[in-house]
Amino acid sequence: MTGHCVPTDLLTRYATGGDLPEETLWVLEAHLERCPDCRARMAEAIRADPVLPGLVESVRVAVEPRLGPGHGRLWGLRHRVRRALARWAVPAVLPWLAMTVAVPLAAVLLETGGPADRTPLLLLIAPLVPVLGVAVSWNRWTDPAHALVAVTPQAGLTLVLRRTLVALLVTLPPVALAGLAVGASPARWLLPGLAFTTVVLAGGALVGVGRAAVAVTALWSLVVVAPTLADAWDPVVLDAAAAPAWLAVTVAAAAITVRFRNRYRFIR
C-alpha cells in the first residue's frame, strides 16, 4: 500500500468498523501510520458517516479535560519524546529492571566475608541477569499496556529486540562493575548471558518470552547454581574453554528466532 492505493471503500469500511480480515487490518493500520493523505481520506469517510462524527465528538469531550492543554512547543516536544521512548521501552518496566539489577548487587553483599576460594555467587547468577531483563521487558505482568501494544501492527520481533536492547543497556553495566568488585570477570559470564538471551528470544517465538525465561532460569539453577553452591560441582561451563559451545548455542538460537520471527505476532 503506497501513495493513494488504498481503495476508498476499504477506508470507509475500516472507519465505520466494518468486518475486515485480521491481516488486512494489520497492513492497513501500518500504512495509515505513515500516510497522511490516506488518513485525511479516512477522516472524510468518518465525516460522511451519519453516526461516527457524533461518537467521536462525545469521546473527545469526555477525554480532552484529562489531556491537559495540549498546546505549545514544550508540550509537542514532550509528546514526541514519549512516542520515541515508547518504541523502545515503557516507564512501567523501569522499576522491574531496577529490581533485576538489585539481584546481583544483593549477591555482592552476600559475598562479603565469605570464603575467598569459593566460586563467587555473582558469577553464577550473572548470566541470568540479561534473561530477567528481557523477561520483564516483554510480558503482560510487568507492562500494564502490554495487551494494547501486542496487538498493534508494529508489534513483533522488532519491538521485542528494541526492548531487549534497552534491558541489556540498563542491567549489564551495574552487573559488570559488581563482578569486577568480587572477582567475577565479565569475560566469563557475558557470552553465556548472551546465549541465554538468544535462547529466551527463540523460545519466546514458540511459547512466550516469560515461559522461556522461567525455563532457562530453572534449568541453570538446578544444573549449575545449586550443585556449585553445594560444593558438588565446579562450574567449568563458565571457563574460557566453553566459549565455542556458548557461541554455537547463540548462533543456533538466533537462527531459530529469525526462522520463527512471525510467531511473535500471535504469542502474547
Key phrases:
transmembrane helix; mainly alpha; single chain; 68% helix
Explained architecture:
This protein has 13 helices and no strands. With 268 residues, it is an all-alpha fold. Helices cover 68% and strands 0% of the residues. The longest helix has 26 residues. It folds into two domains: 60 residues, no CATH class; 176 residues. The model has no long low-confidence stretch (mean pLDDT 77).
Question: Could you give the topology of this structure?
Answer:
Elements (H helix, E strand, L loop, with lengths): L7 H8 L6 H13 L1 H13 L3 H12 L9 H14 L7 H18 L9 H5 L3 H9 L8 H5 L6 H26 L3 H22 L1 H21 L13 H17 L9
Q: Concise description?
A:
With 268 residues, the protein is an all-alpha fold. The protein has helices spanning 8-15, 22-34, 36-48, 52-63, 73-86, 94-111, 121-125, 129-137, 146-150, 157-182, 186-207, 209-229, 243-259. Helix content is 68%, strand content 0%.
Strand/helix succession:
HHHHHHHHHHHHH
Strand content: under 5%
**Classification by helices and strands:** mainly alpha
State mean pLDDT (0 to 100 scale). Answer: 77
Number of strands: 0
Low-pLDDT residue spans: none
> How far is the N terminus from the C terminus?
27 Å
Q: State the helical fraction.
A: 55-70%
Number of domains: 2
The largest sheet, given as strand count, sense and whether it forms a barrel, is: none
Based on Cα principal axes, name the global outline: elongated
